[in-house]
Amino acid sequence: MGRIFAVTLEGRIYSCKHCGTHLALTQDIVSKSFHCKHGKAYLFDKVANITTGEKEDRMMMTGMHTVVDIFCVRCGSIIGWKYEYAHEKSQKYKEGKSVLERFKIIGPDGSDYWTSHEAHIGASDADDA
Fold it and tell me: Which GO terms of the molecular function aspect are on file (predicted)?
């Protein structure tokens, strides 16, 4: 395997819980009202230091979306998903944006997020209505 290239972000960052790799800046958060199987998730306009999986269609709370799973470039942990295509017109704003599962990242203050008893089962997205 080759050498891993990771970008160092400046400012208030979210990092991979497993290896500390920088993933996103707080200023790039679009929404904190998303959900996944482990609880909260955040929608970001931009993320860094990721690789992507295969495209697949998934039925989510807000309809059908074509998504790819996203993984930390350094340790390979799955950290969320990226919206490639939204089948519903009202969901087009999600295209090209990424969701990071709060359970899998460390916040800018160094805090871990622990799953709550209210966590949803199965991957989903925000009920933005």
Answer: ligase activity; metal ion binding
